[in-house]
Fold this sequence. Notes:
11 helices, flat, 77% helix, mainly alpha, 0% strand
Amino acid sequence: QPALRLVFRSLPGAEAMARLRRLLRSAVAQVDLRFGSPADEAAFKASMELELIRNFLLSQIFMAVNSTWTLLDMYHREISHDDRQMAMAASEVRMIPVYVRLANFALSLCVFLLAVLRYCCGMLTGWKWEVIIMGRLVILMLSFFFIGQWHTAMMYGAVPAEIWSSPSEDDEGMIVFSIVAVVAYSCVFLPIRSFIIWVIPLAASTWYFAVLYLVGSPFPHNTRRVVLILNFVLVMLYKGALRHEAHVREKWLA
């Protein structure tokens, strides 16, 4: 092994590769704020878990109210036109947002009830709640594109103006706003450790790029600017989560 190391060090570019490895280790150290002691890290995680679940439960109540209101509002707007009544059929494109909202509600209810068991009854203590809550939020952000009327119609090869009674192009602005709201809520309100919370802003950016590639945008002339601003905000929110967690860890140690 020592001989092999000497051979690798003598290869062209070995010094540059070594410098790159040092830079990568330094970058990882800046985003991985975990304590060196596994016992300290486990104690810190346990101290944050109930706050995480409590804040998640509060947000789920708001999301349930908001989802119910938007579902009723959309259904009322669509059935108010006699010539475009919403048919209760599985093949009806206009029913897709309704189904997605109902599926979101059912999934949120399941996670909500499990979180109540953990918070109020002290059960399910061995579960990885950070991962569970992150998974729920990643799925939620993906569902925004199937709730959006313009994107739903385009995904199924339909013309949005022929499907929806009201203009649907403005949905993209609401989708981007909702994505930023979920990431901001995750980075600011939920005490998820920074070494895994990067999954949420990365998923937000990935979902937006994927849908943009598959169906495009109702405002293609603004696409580059929206992508730039969205990713800038996501990075800043993640950096803010890092700084906040660093202060929380210092306070916890004190």
